[in-house]
Amino acid sequence: MIRRAVVAGSFYPGTPERLRAQAADLIAGDLPKVRATGAVVPHAGYIYSGRVAGAVYARLILPDLVVILGPNHTGVGAGVAIMTDGIWETPLGPVPIDTELAQTILRNSQTIEEDDLGHRREHSIEVQLPLLQACGRPFSFVPICLFSSEYAVCQDVGLAVARAVAGSNRSVLILASTDMSHYVGREQAKINDHLAIEAIVACDPQRLHRIVRREGITMCGFHPTTALLVAARALGATSGELIAYATSADVTKDDSSVVGYAGLIVA
């Protein structure tokens, strides 16, 4: 199965030359690189959130296998959808799904379903691939998108990923793709987002899930991020680090209604 790019030309450039140049610029940096269990990266158009995502990728020693957990914005498909076979295309070329790890994750879970429908029009995972490709290391990946947001589902997904990663003889990076607060004033977004960021830095999935629900934080990928933290803790991670934070107002100059973007590394 070939999953074609659906947001090339809108969220990021649609031609290889322009995309390669922009992605290379976004991930440029000479700070020390670290090997991490996981990371949190935003998924808006590159003009808005690319600098934040790029700052994270610039700090990571990337393995050749990545699990990407993203939200399902469309509501189409399974509550938790995984693809275990095929390739995803971007203007920079094809990226293969790692069938072995994907099937192991699926076997370990009570909630994940084999389903490509949930991925067909969803952008949250797709926008990460060109940035990973621009890092220059060939890789395969496992795409999992979540519509269901109950804590028990997040826990099941996270533990399924952790068991599969722990049983693999390869190095694996787990990514959670999320934007932060949506369409609130800039100052309120910062307040709300840093409540969520503090929970991620503490590597506390229950705290993140509880705070987002209690405070009504409009963090679109809080459930894949919760699943990431469950997996990271099971694999021995103890803390996270905030790498970058921004809002759409940095580009639009409109403070009245913004989207927040945070990039974190979980080790």
Can you walk me through this structure?
The chain is of the alpha/beta class and 267 residues long. Helix content is 38%, strand content 22%. It has one domain (2-266): Protocatechuate 4,5-dioxygenase, Chain B, CATH 3.40.830.10. The strands form 2 sheets. Strands 2, 3, 4, 7, 8, 9, 10, 11 and 12 form a 9-stranded mixed β-sheet that branches. Strands 1-5-6 form a 3-stranded mixed β-sheet. Strand 5 and strand 6 form a beta hairpin. The radius of gyration is 17 Å and the shape is globular. The N and C termini lie far apart (34 Å).
Summarize the structure.
With 267 residues, the protein is of the alpha/beta class. 38% of the residues lie in helices and 22% in strands.
Distance between the termini: 34 Å
Structure summary, number of beta strands = 12
- Unreliable runs: none
Strand content: 15-25%
CATH structural architecture: 3-Layer(aba) Sandwich
Annotated CATH topology? Protocatechuate 4,5-dioxygenase, Chain B
- Could you name the CATH homologous superfamily? LigB-like
Number of helices: 9
